[in-house]
Amino acid sequence: MNHWERVWRAAVHTQVIRPPQQLLATFGQTNIHYYLLTEPVYKEIDESGQPETVLREGRVIAERPKLVTPLYLKKLEGFGDDARRYFDMMMQRHGPNAPGLLYTYKNEPKDTSILSGNLPSVAQRINDDLNGRDEKGATIIRGLDEMWDVSLFKFIYELTERSIGQNVSELHQHGLMGIDERGLPAEARMRIEQLFWEVGMGGCDPATLKAELDRWELFDEYQDRFFEVVRRRR
């Protein structure tokens, strides 16, 4: 079995036993506590002992989704020439200012432990505990031990897919999907205003604001205000 076949097998065998009772937030950060269960690899070698289950516990943090355009995406760092050619194709097909949502995530692994009992029984124990604590932002995922991260990624992808409709609808309701004459989404203007406020309060590095302005090609428009808020921080 080659690498891609193994990835496909891991994806096919992924099962979300308990989905989180929430979608990704439109206007804030989302924290999802995950319990990822797998049968240990050594089970295939030694089936004489008591059943055991591997538990990987951690958090996935989804940042607030950004309303972006192909022009904005092309200016993100870390993309090679092939990706930039793709962005050019997007701009030719949909226009440089066609809006879309950009989701970013961070995985914070916590603990890995071996628990007694087969996987269904361990999943039931964890599920009962979560119900007892009324923990709505938690998920239980079943995956394959040797490629457990594929299962986690598949869960994130499918949760994002389910969240997009609600996120877009809420942005529409707040009038943030419109594009101004410069090709800037209203949500992006609001995000820039938030960054100015955070920089002024000392909770954000001015470099973060500068990078956002540069990606939208807006630094000339905001430069006087930018230098003023940086001066006030000193």
Number of strands: 7
Question: Strand share of the residues?
Answer: 15-25%
H-E string: HEEEEHHEEHEHHHH
Overall shape:
elongated
Oligomer: single chain
- List segments where confidence is low: pLDDT < 50 over at least 5 consecutive residues: none
CA radius of gyration is: 22 Å
What percent of residues adopt helix (DSSP H or I)? 40-55%
Quick one: biggest sheet? Answer: 5 strands, mixed
Q: Look at the structure and give the mean pLDDT.
A: 89
What's the total helix number? 8
Q: How far apart lie the N and C ends? A: 59 Å
Helix- and strand-based class?
Answer: alpha+beta
Short summary of the structure?
By secondary structure, this protein is of the alpha+beta class.
List keywords for this structure.
234 residues, alpha+beta, 5-stranded mixed β-sheet, 21% strand, elongated
Written overview of the protein:
This protein is of the alpha+beta class and 234 residues long. The chain has a domain of 138 residues. It has eight helices and seven strands, in the order H-E-E-E-E-H-H-E-E-H-E-H-H-H-H. The strands form two sheets. The chain has a five-stranded mixed sheet, with helices on both faces. It has a two-stranded antiparallel sheet with strand order 4-5. Helix 6 runs antiparallel to helix 7. It is elongated and about 70 Å long. The N and C termini lie far apart (59 Å).
